[in-house]
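ASSEMBLY PREDICTION REQUEST
Request ID: AP-0331
Submitted by: J.K., bench scientist
Number of chains: two
Total residues: 230
Priority: normal
Notes: Please return the full assembly, not individual chains.
Input sequences:
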Amino acid sequence: LAKTTQPISMDSYEGQEVNITCSHNNIATNDYITWYQQFPSQGPRFIIQGYKTKVTNEVASLFIPADRKSSTLSLPRVSLSDTAVYYCLVGVLSGAGSYQLTFGKGTKLSVIP
Amino acid sequence: NAGVTQTPKFRILKIGQSMTLQCTQDMNHNYMYWYRQDPGMGLKLIYYSVGAGITDKGEVPNGYNVSRSTTEDFPLRLELAAPSQTSVYFCASSPIPTRAGAKNIQYFGAGTRLSVL
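STATUS: Completed
Returned structure:
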């Protein structure tokens, strides 16, 4: 089962770009990398997912190097509403349908006015 | 537009009591999960299910039981509540991945906050 490592916390000023890196040295060849956002007293919410290179959607970008041992979530021009905990998640799906997922401790992002 | 619904939202139990946390989803997802989240920590997988009648243990299954008689419902049972089970419990669901290692986007409920005193 692949494990993940993220910084515990980060601070950023409004309007800046924030990059959160997750290490997953033991990622399997068929693992996707998924990022979630969690606000207090709410369940996590899907942000973005990728397998390799770069993925971009309306809220974030995800950069994955060729060796796939890490990934970086990029949030452009953060606002106060982006203050949340961000989780990197790597899952493994076996050929028999067995499915194991483990969330890391997450990165608490605090956006400062 | 309900998604994943968890009940109750809050509950206080005495040590040794039993209860069932309810989870239902209306997205016709085959995969369902139960997580617990302790204060300031990440989520730990308790049990999961890949379809009706099929369940399997996650990282922290001790003290819990699950059943999956329908696609929609995935209740979590605590038989003898202990203070160590004080936590926030999240249920989630996801569709069948289209290929091995494919998208595992999970949709979460709002959580059940449980205190065992």
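REVIEWER COMMENTS: Residues 37 and 43 of chain B are 5 Å apart (CA to CA).
SIGN-OFF: pending second reviewer
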